[in-house]
Write a structure and sequence with these properties.
Blueprint: H1 3-14, E1 28-29, E2 38-39, E3 50-51, E4 59-60, E5 95-97, E6 105-107, H2 108-118, H3 131-139, H4 150-156, E7 189-191, E8 199-201
Antiparallel strand pairs: 1-2, 3-4, 5-6, 7-8
Domain PHD-type: 1-65
Domain RING-type: 80-127
InterPro entries: EPHD (IPR034732), PHD-type_Zinc_Finger (IPR051188), PHD_PHF7/G2E3-like (IPR059102), Znf_FYVE_PHD (IPR011011), Znf_PHD (IPR001965), Znf_RING (IPR001841), Znf_RING/FYVE/PHD (IPR013083)
Amino acid sequence: FLVGDTRRIIREAAMKSCFVCCKMGATITCCETGCDRTFHLPCAPEGQCVTQYFGAYRSFCWEHRPQQALQPRPNQDNTCSICLDTVEDNISYKTMGCPVCRDARFHRHCIQRLALHSGTGFRCPRCLNQEPFLMEMLVMGIRLSKRPLSWQRDREVGPSDQRHGRCDAATCLCPGGREQAEADGPWQLWLCSSCAAEGTHRLCSSLGNSTCSWECSTC
């Protein structure tokens, strides 16, 4: 974006209300034609919104988000294939499944954490399929990492090399791009206080001056 375009986007966002928390400064708009719902990135999980972290980085509200076409199976074991806790009987925003084996069920937050830690080795935790499974997860709003497996990185590099260094907001407003980070001000880069695998500029996620921590939508 040019500086003028960035200022215009900031002014427009300041006038938009998040349909989840009802506060102003919502920078994300549903991509469905005719839908004017806007929301903050941190509010997305509560509002059951989906942001696709590839291509055009499209975002969708709860009504227009993509949904899996999986059907419940009579012999389905309703436990998460990752954490082994109970999942819902039916596929939903919080409960997802593998489109290949159709047996694996997992919580959205569990598969998101697996995706970030698995990096380029991300695949279905049950049938180990990679290609169709990976594409479906992308469409459903799961963010992938292009880095090697986290447990391999821990052995290969030191802690200083692992710090995340880019803004992952659906719409980055920084004129210098997603990689720019300043020590203070609107372009200060905040890392998720839980996983440290996602970051955001203060302004891109509408973080006030009194904010002392930030948690990404997947955590």
